[in-house]
From TrEMBL:
Highest taxon of the lineage: Bacteria
GO MF annotations, alphabetized: efflux transmembrane transporter activity; porin activity
Protein name as catalogued: Transporter
Listed SUPFAM superfamilies: Outer membrane efflux proteins (OEP)
Compartment(s) of residence: Cell outer membrane
Entry's family note: Belongs to the outer membrane factor (OMF) (TC 1.B.17) family.
Gene3D superfamilies in alphabetical order: Outer membrane efflux proteins (OEP)
Parts forming coiled coils: 216-284, 406-474
GO CC entries: cell outer membrane; efflux pump complex
InterPro entries: OMP_efflux (IPR003423), TolC-like (IPR051906)
Keyword presence, Membrane: yes
Protein backbone atom coordinates (compact mmCIF):
# COMPACT_ATOMS: atom_id res chain seq x y z
CA UNK A 1 0.00 0.00 0.00
CA UNK A 2 2.83 2.36 0.87
CA UNK A 3 4.60 1.62 -2.42
CA UNK A 4 1.47 2.37 -4.38
CA UNK A 5 0.99 5.70 -2.61
CA UNK A 6 4.61 6.66 -3.19
CA UNK A 7 4.40 5.81 -6.88
CA UNK A 8 1.15 7.76 -7.15
CA UNK A 9 2.83 10.80 -5.63
CA UNK A 10 5.76 10.58 -8.05
CA UNK A 11 3.41 10.11 -11.00
CA UNK A 12 1.44 13.17 -9.90
CA UNK A 13 4.66 15.18 -9.81
CA UNK A 14 5.56 14.04 -13.33
CA UNK A 15 2.07 14.91 -14.54
CA UNK A 16 2.64 18.53 -13.47
CA UNK A 17 5.91 18.72 -15.41
CA UNK A 18 5.82 20.34 -18.88
CA UNK A 19 6.40 18.60 -22.18
CA UNK A 20 7.14 14.89 -22.55
CA UNK A 21 7.40 14.30 -18.78
CA UNK A 22 3.66 14.87 -18.52
CA UNK A 23 3.00 12.25 -21.18
CA UNK A 24 5.37 9.80 -19.43
CA UNK A 25 3.52 10.03 -16.10
CA UNK A 26 1.29 6.93 -16.59
CA UNK A 27 4.17 4.80 -17.83
CA UNK A 28 6.55 5.97 -15.10
CA UNK A 29 3.91 5.23 -12.49
CA UNK A 30 3.65 1.66 -13.75
CA UNK A 31 7.43 1.18 -13.63
CA UNK A 32 7.69 2.63 -10.14
CA UNK A 33 4.91 0.38 -8.90
CA UNK A 34 6.84 -2.65 -10.12
CA UNK A 35 10.10 -1.44 -8.60
CA UNK A 36 8.68 -0.45 -5.22
CA UNK A 37 6.56 -3.55 -5.01
CA UNK A 38 9.64 -5.65 -5.75
CA UNK A 39 11.60 -3.94 -2.96
CA UNK A 40 8.70 -4.40 -0.57
CA UNK A 41 8.44 -8.09 -1.46
CA UNK A 42 12.16 -8.58 -0.89
CA UNK A 43 12.00 -6.97 2.54
CA UNK A 44 8.96 -9.04 3.52
CA UNK A 45 10.68 -12.19 2.31
CA UNK A 46 13.69 -11.49 4.54
CA UNK A 47 11.58 -10.73 7.59
CA UNK A 48 9.08 -13.52 7.02
CA UNK A 49 10.63 -16.30 4.89
CA UNK A 50 7.97 -18.08 2.79
CA UNK A 51 7.25 -21.75 3.02
CA UNK A 52 8.49 -22.30 -0.50
CA UNK A 53 11.30 -19.86 -1.29
CA UNK A 54 11.87 -21.15 -4.82
CA UNK A 55 8.79 -19.43 -6.20
CA UNK A 56 9.76 -16.12 -4.66
CA UNK A 57 13.29 -16.37 -5.94
CA UNK A 58 11.93 -17.23 -9.41
CA UNK A 59 9.57 -14.30 -9.65
CA UNK A 60 11.56 -11.56 -7.94
CA UNK A 61 14.51 -11.37 -10.43
CA UNK A 62 12.14 -11.17 -13.39
CA UNK A 63 10.14 -8.35 -11.87
CA UNK A 64 13.31 -6.54 -10.85
CA UNK A 65 14.68 -6.82 -14.37
CA UNK A 66 11.45 -5.51 -15.94
CA UNK A 67 11.25 -2.61 -13.50
CA UNK A 68 14.89 -1.67 -13.99
CA UNK A 69 14.59 -1.69 -17.78
CA UNK A 70 11.43 0.44 -17.71
CA UNK A 71 13.00 2.99 -15.36
CA UNK A 72 16.10 3.24 -17.56
CA UNK A 73 14.01 3.78 -20.68
CA UNK A 74 11.86 6.42 -19.00
CA UNK A 75 14.93 8.20 -17.64
CA UNK A 76 16.47 8.34 -21.12
CA UNK A 77 13.22 9.67 -22.60
CA UNK A 78 12.78 12.35 -19.95
CA UNK A 79 16.40 13.54 -20.17
CA UNK A 80 16.10 15.31 -23.57
CA UNK A 81 12.73 16.82 -22.73
CA UNK A 82 14.10 20.38 -22.76
CA UNK A 83 15.49 20.35 -26.32
CA UNK A 84 12.37 18.56 -27.64
CA UNK A 85 10.15 21.36 -26.35
CA UNK A 86 12.39 23.97 -28.01
CA UNK A 87 12.22 22.20 -31.36
CA UNK A 88 8.44 21.93 -31.15
CA UNK A 89 8.16 25.61 -30.35
CA UNK A 90 10.36 26.51 -33.29
CA UNK A 91 8.36 24.35 -35.68
CA UNK A 92 4.93 25.77 -34.87
CA UNK A 93 4.79 27.73 -38.11
CA UNK A 94 4.89 26.26 -41.60
CA UNK A 95 7.71 27.65 -43.73
CA UNK A 96 6.64 28.54 -47.29
CA UNK A 97 8.95 29.91 -49.95
CA UNK A 98 7.80 31.93 -52.94
CA UNK A 99 8.09 28.99 -55.35
CA UNK A 100 6.16 26.80 -52.93
CA UNK A 101 3.47 29.47 -52.65
CA UNK A 102 3.12 29.52 -56.44
CA UNK A 103 2.80 25.73 -56.56
CA UNK A 104 0.22 25.77 -53.76
CA UNK A 105 -1.85 28.39 -55.57
CA UNK A 106 -1.66 26.47 -58.85
CA UNK A 107 -2.91 23.35 -57.06
CA UNK A 108 -5.69 24.91 -54.98
CA UNK A 109 -7.03 27.89 -56.90
CA UNK A 110 -10.69 27.23 -57.75
CA UNK A 111 -10.75 29.47 -60.82
CA UNK A 112 -7.86 27.48 -62.24
CA UNK A 113 -9.69 24.24 -61.48
CA UNK A 114 -12.76 25.54 -63.32
CA UNK A 115 -10.65 26.51 -66.32
CA UNK A 116 -9.02 23.08 -66.31
CA UNK A 117 -12.40 21.35 -66.19
CA UNK A 118 -13.64 23.54 -69.05
CA UNK A 119 -10.58 22.62 -71.12
CA UNK A 120 -11.25 18.91 -70.57
CA UNK A 121 -14.90 19.33 -71.51
CA UNK A 122 -13.99 21.20 -74.70
CA UNK A 123 -11.50 18.50 -75.65
CA UNK A 124 -14.14 15.81 -75.14
CA UNK A 125 -16.58 17.71 -77.35
CA UNK A 126 -13.90 18.07 -80.02
CA UNK A 127 -13.28 14.34 -80.18
CA UNK A 128 -17.02 13.66 -80.23
CA UNK A 129 -17.42 15.95 -83.25
CA UNK A 130 -14.47 14.34 -85.00
CA UNK A 131 -15.90 10.87 -84.52
CA UNK A 132 -19.21 12.09 -85.89
CA UNK A 133 -17.76 11.32 -89.33
CA UNK A 134 -17.61 7.67 -88.35
CA UNK A 135 -20.71 5.50 -88.80
CA UNK A 136 -22.66 4.49 -85.75
CA UNK A 137 -22.86 0.71 -85.31
CA UNK A 138 -24.82 -1.55 -83.00
CA UNK A 139 -25.59 -5.21 -82.47
CA UNK A 140 -29.05 -6.38 -81.37
CA UNK A 141 -29.85 -9.83 -80.06
CA UNK A 142 -33.23 -11.18 -78.95
CA UNK A 143 -34.21 -14.42 -77.25
CA UNK A 144 -37.88 -15.24 -76.57
CA UNK A 145 -40.37 -18.06 -76.02
CA UNK A 146 -43.99 -18.03 -77.22
CA UNK A 147 -46.45 -20.43 -75.62
CA UNK A 148 -50.21 -21.02 -75.74
CA UNK A 149 -52.90 -22.69 -77.83
CA UNK A 150 -52.70 -22.75 -81.61
CA UNK A 151 -54.08 -24.75 -84.53
CA UNK A 152 -51.79 -27.48 -85.83
CA UNK A 153 -52.16 -28.08 -89.55
CA UNK A 154 -50.32 -31.39 -89.28
CA UNK A 155 -52.70 -32.76 -86.66
CA UNK A 156 -55.77 -30.81 -87.69
CA UNK A 157 -56.63 -29.70 -84.17
CA UNK A 158 -55.86 -27.10 -81.54
CA UNK A 159 -52.87 -27.96 -79.41
CA UNK A 160 -50.85 -26.40 -76.59
CA UNK A 161 -47.29 -25.73 -77.68
CA UNK A 162 -44.34 -23.43 -77.07
CA UNK A 163 -41.93 -21.93 -79.60
CA UNK A 164 -38.41 -20.64 -78.92
CA UNK A 165 -37.01 -17.81 -81.00
CA UNK A 166 -33.54 -16.24 -81.27
CA UNK A 167 -32.30 -13.44 -83.52
CA UNK A 168 -29.10 -11.41 -83.92
CA UNK A 169 -28.68 -8.34 -86.13
CA UNK A 170 -25.93 -5.83 -86.78
CA UNK A 171 -26.67 -2.34 -88.11
CA UNK A 172 -24.60 0.64 -89.16
CA UNK A 173 -25.67 4.11 -90.23
CA UNK A 174 -24.02 7.34 -91.26
CA UNK A 175 -25.81 10.67 -91.54
CA UNK A 176 -24.54 13.73 -93.39
CA UNK A 177 -26.34 16.79 -92.04
CA UNK A 178 -26.65 19.40 -94.75
CA UNK A 179 -24.74 17.18 -97.20
CA UNK A 180 -21.92 16.97 -94.64
CA UNK A 181 -21.44 20.74 -94.29
CA UNK A 182 -22.89 20.77 -90.79
CA UNK A 183 -20.70 17.84 -89.72
CA UNK A 184 -17.57 19.57 -90.95
CA UNK A 185 -18.50 22.98 -89.50
CA UNK A 186 -19.37 21.53 -86.10
CA UNK A 187 -16.07 19.66 -86.00
CA UNK A 188 -14.04 22.76 -86.83
CA UNK A 189 -16.00 24.82 -84.31
CA UNK A 190 -15.30 22.26 -81.58
CA UNK A 191 -11.59 22.31 -82.43
CA UNK A 192 -11.44 26.09 -82.14
CA UNK A 193 -13.39 25.99 -78.88
CA UNK A 194 -10.93 23.45 -77.48
CA UNK A 195 -8.04 25.68 -78.50
CA UNK A 196 -9.73 28.66 -76.86
CA UNK A 197 -10.26 26.71 -73.63
CA UNK A 198 -6.60 25.64 -73.53
CA UNK A 199 -5.43 29.22 -74.04
CA UNK A 200 -7.81 30.45 -71.35
CA UNK A 201 -6.37 27.86 -69.00
CA UNK A 202 -2.88 29.12 -69.76
CA UNK A 203 -3.93 32.69 -69.01
CA UNK A 204 -5.60 31.56 -65.79
CA UNK A 205 -2.31 30.05 -64.66
CA UNK A 206 -0.59 33.37 -65.35
CA UNK A 207 -3.32 35.17 -63.41
CA UNK A 208 -2.76 32.94 -60.40
CA UNK A 209 1.01 33.48 -60.48
CA UNK A 210 0.49 37.23 -60.84
CA UNK A 211 -1.83 37.38 -57.84
CA UNK A 212 0.61 35.41 -55.71
CA UNK A 213 3.49 37.61 -56.84
CA UNK A 214 1.53 40.80 -56.16
CA UNK A 215 0.53 39.77 -52.63
CA UNK A 216 3.94 38.28 -51.87
CA UNK A 217 5.77 41.46 -52.87
CA UNK A 218 3.27 43.50 -50.85
CA UNK A 219 4.00 41.34 -47.80
CA UNK A 220 7.76 41.73 -48.21
CA UNK A 221 7.39 45.48 -48.62
CA UNK A 222 5.35 45.75 -45.42
CA UNK A 223 7.94 43.68 -43.57
CA UNK A 224 10.74 45.97 -44.70
CA UNK A 225 8.76 49.01 -43.61
CA UNK A 226 8.18 47.37 -40.23
CA UNK A 227 11.93 46.87 -39.82
CA UNK A 228 12.53 50.55 -40.60
CA UNK A 229 9.83 51.64 -38.13
CA UNK A 230 11.32 49.46 -35.38
CA UNK A 231 14.78 50.86 -36.02
CA UNK A 232 13.39 54.37 -35.89
CA UNK A 233 11.60 53.58 -32.63
CA UNK A 234 14.83 52.33 -31.09
CA UNK A 235 16.66 55.45 -32.28
CA UNK A 236 14.03 57.73 -30.73
CA UNK A 237 14.20 55.82 -27.47
CA UNK A 238 17.94 56.33 -27.39
CA UNK A 239 17.40 60.02 -28.03
CA UNK A 240 14.85 60.06 -25.23
CA UNK A 241 17.40 58.63 -22.80
CA UNK A 242 19.93 61.21 -23.98
CA UNK A 243 17.46 64.07 -23.54
CA UNK A 244 16.57 62.83 -20.07
CA UNK A 245 20.24 63.13 -19.16
CA UNK A 246 20.35 66.65 -20.64
CA UNK A 247 17.23 67.68 -18.73
CA UNK A 248 18.61 66.25 -15.50
CA UNK A 249 21.82 68.17 -16.11
CA UNK A 250 19.82 71.35 -16.79
CA UNK A 251 21.15 71.83 -20.33
CA UNK A 252 17.73 71.24 -21.93
CA UNK A 253 14.27 72.46 -20.93
CA UNK A 254 11.64 70.05 -19.70
CA UNK A 255 9.59 70.77 -22.82
CA UNK A 256 12.24 69.00 -24.92
CA UNK A 257 11.66 65.87 -22.85
CA UNK A 258 7.91 66.07 -23.39
CA UNK A 259 8.33 66.56 -27.12
CA UNK A 260 10.67 63.59 -27.36
CA UNK A 261 8.25 61.45 -25.38
CA UNK A 262 5.56 62.40 -27.89
CA UNK A 263 7.95 61.47 -30.70
CA UNK A 264 8.56 58.05 -29.12
CA UNK A 265 4.81 57.51 -28.78
CA UNK A 266 4.41 58.47 -32.43
CA UNK A 267 7.08 55.93 -33.41
CA UNK A 268 5.39 53.24 -31.30
CA UNK A 269 2.11 53.97 -33.05
CA UNK A 270 3.87 53.70 -36.41
CA UNK A 271 5.28 50.30 -35.40
CA UNK A 272 1.81 49.09 -34.41
CA UNK A 273 0.42 50.28 -37.73
CA UNK A 274 3.24 48.56 -39.61
CA UNK A 275 2.65 45.32 -37.69
CA UNK A 276 -1.04 45.49 -38.56
CA UNK A 277 -0.18 46.05 -42.23
CA UNK A 278 2.10 42.99 -42.17
CA UNK A 279 -0.65 40.86 -40.66
CA UNK A 280 -3.17 42.10 -43.22
CA UNK A 281 -0.75 41.36 -46.06
CA UNK A 282 -0.23 37.85 -44.68
CA UNK A 283 -4.00 37.34 -44.45
CA UNK A 284 -4.47 38.40 -48.06
CA UNK A 285 -1.71 36.04 -49.18
CA UNK A 286 -3.23 33.19 -47.17
CA UNK A 287 -6.56 33.90 -48.85
CA UNK A 288 -4.99 33.81 -52.31
CA UNK A 289 -3.26 30.51 -51.51
CA UNK A 290 -6.46 29.12 -49.93
CA UNK A 291 -4.59 27.96 -46.82
CA UNK A 292 -5.96 27.24 -43.37
CA UNK A 293 -6.24 30.65 -41.66
CA UNK A 294 -5.89 29.03 -38.21
CA UNK A 295 -2.36 27.81 -38.98
CA UNK A 296 0.75 29.96 -38.55
CA UNK A 297 2.89 30.43 -41.66
CA UNK A 298 6.38 31.79 -42.18
CA UNK A 299 6.63 33.18 -45.70
CA UNK A 300 10.28 33.26 -46.68
CA UNK A 301 11.52 36.29 -48.60
CA UNK A 302 13.15 35.51 -51.96
CA UNK A 303 16.60 36.79 -52.69
CA UNK A 304 16.35 40.42 -53.78
CA UNK A 305 19.45 42.33 -54.73
CA UNK A 306 20.26 45.24 -52.45
CA UNK A 307 21.31 47.46 -55.34
CA UNK A 308 18.75 47.09 -58.10
CA UNK A 309 20.13 48.12 -61.45
CA UNK A 310 17.63 48.98 -64.22
CA UNK A 311 17.88 46.80 -67.28
CA UNK A 312 17.83 47.83 -70.92
CA UNK A 313 14.88 50.19 -71.50
CA UNK A 314 11.83 48.67 -73.13
CA UNK A 315 10.38 49.86 -76.43
CA UNK A 316 6.64 50.46 -76.33
CA UNK A 317 6.03 49.37 -79.94
CA UNK A 318 7.94 46.14 -79.41
CA UNK A 319 6.01 45.45 -76.22
CA UNK A 320 2.70 46.02 -78.02
CA UNK A 321 3.60 43.64 -80.81
CA UNK A 322 4.83 41.04 -78.36
CA UNK A 323 1.59 41.26 -76.39
CA UNK A 324 -0.53 40.88 -79.53
CA UNK A 325 1.43 37.76 -80.45
CA UNK A 326 1.71 36.13 -77.02
CA UNK A 327 -1.28 37.08 -74.91
CA UNK A 328 -3.22 33.87 -74.31
CA UNK A 329 -6.52 35.62 -73.70
CA UNK A 330 -6.28 37.47 -77.03
CA UNK A 331 -5.50 34.25 -78.87
CA UNK A 332 -8.36 32.54 -77.03
CA UNK A 333 -10.80 35.24 -78.17
CA UNK A 334 -9.52 34.93 -81.73
CA UNK A 335 -10.17 31.18 -81.59
CA UNK A 336 -13.66 31.88 -80.24
CA UNK A 337 -14.35 34.16 -83.23
CA UNK A 338 -13.32 31.41 -85.65
CA UNK A 339 -15.47 28.93 -83.76
CA UNK A 340 -18.45 31.31 -84.01
CA UNK A 341 -17.88 31.64 -87.76
CA UNK A 342 -18.08 27.87 -88.11
CA UNK A 343 -21.28 27.88 -86.09
CA UNK A 344 -22.82 30.30 -88.60
CA UNK A 345 -21.85 27.95 -91.44
CA UNK A 346 -23.31 25.03 -89.51
CA UNK A 347 -26.61 26.88 -88.98
CA UNK A 348 -26.86 27.79 -92.67
CA UNK A 349 -26.30 24.17 -93.69
CA UNK A 350 -29.79 23.38 -92.38
CA UNK A 351 -31.08 24.69 -95.75
CA UNK A 352 -29.40 21.71 -97.43
CA UNK A 353 -30.85 18.18 -97.49
CA UNK A 354 -29.75 15.45 -95.12
CA UNK A 355 -28.37 12.21 -96.53
CA UNK A 356 -28.38 9.00 -94.50
CA UNK A 357 -26.66 5.73 -95.33
CA UNK A 358 -27.60 2.51 -93.58
CA UNK A 359 -26.67 -1.16 -93.71
CA UNK A 360 -27.67 -4.19 -91.70
CA UNK A 361 -27.01 -7.90 -91.54
CA UNK A 362 -28.42 -10.65 -89.31
CA UNK A 363 -30.07 -14.02 -88.87
CA UNK A 364 -32.59 -15.80 -86.65
CA UNK A 365 -33.42 -19.21 -85.26
CA UNK A 366 -36.74 -20.83 -84.34
CA UNK A 367 -37.48 -24.10 -82.60
CA UNK A 368 -40.12 -24.89 -85.23
CA UNK A 369 -37.45 -24.97 -87.95
CA UNK A 370 -35.23 -27.63 -86.40
CA UNK A 371 -36.92 -30.47 -88.31
CA UNK A 372 -38.10 -30.94 -91.88
CA UNK A 373 -41.34 -32.99 -91.75
CA UNK A 374 -42.70 -34.86 -94.77
CA UNK A 375 -46.34 -35.18 -95.91
CA UNK A 376 -46.80 -38.27 -93.78
CA UNK A 377 -45.52 -36.55 -90.65
CA UNK A 378 -42.18 -38.25 -90.72
CA UNK A 379 -38.97 -36.26 -90.03
CA UNK A 380 -36.96 -36.02 -93.20
CA UNK A 381 -34.05 -33.90 -91.95
CA UNK A 382 -32.88 -32.33 -88.69
CA UNK A 383 -31.08 -28.98 -88.60
CA UNK A 384 -28.64 -27.77 -85.96
CA UNK A 385 -28.67 -24.33 -84.38
CA UNK A 386 -25.90 -22.97 -86.58
CA UNK A 387 -27.37 -24.57 -89.71
CA UNK A 388 -30.59 -22.65 -89.15
CA UNK A 389 -28.70 -19.39 -88.59
CA UNK A 390 -26.78 -19.97 -91.79
CA UNK A 391 -29.92 -20.72 -93.82
CA UNK A 392 -31.73 -17.63 -92.56
CA UNK A 393 -28.95 -15.02 -92.67
CA UNK A 394 -29.38 -11.88 -94.77
CA UNK A 395 -28.82 -8.14 -94.86
CA UNK A 396 -29.89 -4.80 -96.27
CA UNK A 397 -28.42 -1.52 -97.47
CA UNK A 398 -30.16 1.77 -97.99
CA UNK A 399 -29.84 5.47 -98.65
CA UNK A 400 -32.33 8.17 -97.78
CA UNK A 401 -32.72 11.89 -98.43
CA UNK A 402 -34.60 14.30 -96.24
CA UNK A 403 -35.31 17.95 -96.90
CA UNK A 404 -37.12 20.17 -94.44
CA UNK A 405 -39.66 22.32 -96.28
CA UNK A 406 -40.98 24.23 -93.29
CA UNK A 407 -40.02 24.12 -89.60
CA UNK A 408 -41.63 27.23 -88.18
CA UNK A 409 -38.66 29.54 -88.92
CA UNK A 410 -36.38 27.52 -86.67
CA UNK A 411 -33.65 27.53 -89.30
CA UNK A 412 -33.78 31.30 -89.56
CA UNK A 413 -33.68 31.52 -85.77
CA UNK A 414 -30.58 29.31 -85.58
CA UNK A 415 -28.80 31.35 -88.24
CA UNK A 416 -29.63 34.63 -86.51
CA UNK A 417 -28.47 33.32 -83.12
CA UNK A 418 -25.21 32.12 -84.63
CA UNK A 419 -24.58 35.48 -86.27
CA UNK A 420 -25.24 37.32 -82.99
CA UNK A 421 -22.78 35.03 -81.18
CA UNK A 422 -20.24 35.74 -83.89
CA UNK A 423 -20.68 39.50 -83.45
CA UNK A 424 -20.34 39.18 -79.67
CA UNK A 425 -17.14 37.18 -80.10
CA UNK A 426 -15.76 39.85 -82.43
CA UNK A 427 -16.66 42.57 -79.93
CA UNK A 428 -14.91 40.62 -77.16
CA UNK A 429 -11.83 40.33 -79.36
CA UNK A 430 -11.79 44.06 -80.05
CA UNK A 431 -12.28 44.88 -76.35
CA UNK A 432 -9.48 42.52 -75.34
CA UNK A 433 -7.15 43.99 -77.93
CA UNK A 434 -7.88 47.51 -76.69
CA UNK A 435 -7.47 46.46 -73.04
CA UNK A 436 -4.12 44.88 -73.85
CA UNK A 437 -2.91 48.06 -75.52
CA UNK A 438 -3.92 50.15 -72.50
CA UNK A 439 -2.47 47.67 -70.00
CA UNK A 440 0.86 47.46 -71.81
CA UNK A 441 1.05 51.23 -72.18
CA UNK A 442 0.23 51.78 -68.51
CA UNK A 443 2.74 49.13 -67.43
CA UNK A 444 5.39 50.71 -69.65
CA UNK A 445 4.82 54.16 -68.15
CA UNK A 446 4.80 52.77 -64.61
CA UNK A 447 8.04 50.95 -65.32
CA UNK A 448 9.67 54.14 -66.56
CA UNK A 449 8.53 55.90 -63.40
CA UNK A 450 9.81 53.03 -61.24
CA UNK A 451 13.24 53.28 -62.88
CA UNK A 452 13.39 57.00 -62.16
CA UNK A 453 12.19 56.48 -58.59
CA UNK A 454 15.13 54.17 -57.94
CA UNK A 455 17.56 57.00 -58.56
CA UNK A 456 15.45 59.67 -56.87
CA UNK A 457 14.78 57.69 -53.69
CA UNK A 458 18.45 56.72 -53.41
CA UNK A 459 19.46 60.38 -53.47
CA UNK A 460 16.61 61.28 -51.13
CA UNK A 461 17.60 58.61 -48.62
CA UNK A 462 21.26 59.64 -48.72
CA UNK A 463 20.36 63.28 -48.16
CA UNK A 464 17.89 62.44 -45.37
CA UNK A 465 20.51 60.33 -43.59
CA UNK A 466 23.04 63.12 -43.78
CA UNK A 467 20.45 65.65 -42.59
CA UNK A 468 19.56 63.48 -39.61
CA UNK A 469 23.20 63.04 -38.64
CA UNK A 470 23.76 66.79 -38.94
CA UNK A 471 20.64 67.56 -36.88
CA UNK A 472 21.77 65.11 -34.21
CA UNK A 473 25.18 66.75 -33.99
CA UNK A 474 23.63 70.23 -33.89
CA UNK A 475 21.27 69.11 -31.16
CA UNK A 476 24.11 67.61 -29.13
CA UNK A 477 25.96 70.93 -29.41
CA UNK A 478 22.84 72.90 -28.48
CA UNK A 479 22.58 74.63 -31.85
CA UNK A 480 19.26 72.94 -32.76
CA UNK A 481 16.07 72.29 -30.85
CA UNK A 482 14.08 69.07 -30.53
CA UNK A 483 11.67 70.09 -33.30
CA UNK A 484 14.46 70.22 -35.86
CA UNK A 485 15.75 66.82 -34.74
CA UNK A 486 12.27 65.29 -34.82
CA UNK A 487 11.62 66.60 -38.33
CA UNK A 488 14.96 65.22 -39.51
CA UNK A 489 14.13 61.81 -38.07
CA UNK A 490 10.67 61.86 -39.64
CA UNK A 491 12.12 62.79 -43.03
CA UNK A 492 14.63 59.95 -42.79
CA UNK A 493 11.91 57.40 -41.99
CA UNK A 494 9.84 58.62 -44.92
CA UNK A 495 12.85 58.47 -47.24
CA UNK A 496 13.74 54.95 -46.09
CA UNK A 497 10.16 53.77 -46.58
CA UNK A 498 9.98 55.35 -50.02
CA UNK A 499 13.26 53.68 -50.94
CA UNK A 500 11.89 50.28 -49.95
CA UNK A 501 8.71 50.88 -51.92
CA UNK A 502 10.75 52.01 -54.92
CA UNK A 503 12.86 48.83 -54.91
CA UNK A 504 9.89 46.50 -54.65
CA UNK A 505 7.85 48.61 -57.06
CA UNK A 506 10.60 48.30 -59.66
CA UNK A 507 10.68 44.50 -59.32
CA UNK A 508 6.90 44.36 -59.44
CA UNK A 509 6.62 46.62 -62.50
CA UNK A 510 9.19 44.54 -64.36
CA UNK A 511 7.19 41.38 -63.67
CA UNK A 512 4.00 43.27 -64.50
CA UNK A 513 5.29 43.96 -68.00
CA UNK A 514 6.02 40.26 -68.45
CA UNK A 515 2.48 39.50 -67.29
CA UNK A 516 0.82 42.01 -69.61
CA UNK A 517 2.80 40.99 -72.69
CA UNK A 518 2.06 37.32 -71.97
CA UNK A 519 5.64 36.12 -71.40
CA UNK A 520 5.18 35.28 -67.71
CA UNK A 521 5.99 31.58 -67.32
CA UNK A 522 4.36 29.96 -64.26
CA UNK A 523 6.88 27.10 -64.36
CA UNK A 524 9.94 29.32 -63.99
CA UNK A 525 11.22 30.98 -60.83
CA UNK A 526 10.33 34.66 -60.80
CA UNK A 527 13.12 35.79 -58.44
Amino acid sequence: MGGTLLSYAIATFLARCPGPARRLAPRSSFALILLIDDVRSSMMARLFPPASGNAARAVSPVRSLIAAVLVCILTAMVAPAGPAVAQTTGADSTVISFDQAVNIALDQNTNLKRASAEARRAETNMWAERLDWMPSADVTSRLSRNFGRSFSQEEGRIVNESTDFFSIDGNASLTFQGLGVQNWSSMRSAEYQSTSADLSLERSRQDVVFRVMNNYISLLEQREILVVQKEELEARRQQLRQIEEFVDAGSRPISALYEQQAAVAEAESAVLTAERDVQLAESRLIQVLRLDPMTAYDFQAPELEEDVEPETPYQLDALMQQAYNQRSDLRANAASVRAAEREVTSARSSYLPTVSLSAGYGSNWSSTATELVGPNGQVIETFSFFDILDRRRGGNVGISFRYNLFDGLRREQQVENAQVQKLNAQYDLEDTRLDIALEVREAYLNYQTAVKQLDVTEKQLRAARQAREAAQERYNLGAADIVELTNANRNFVQAASQRIRARYNYVFQKKLIAYYVGSLNPNESLF
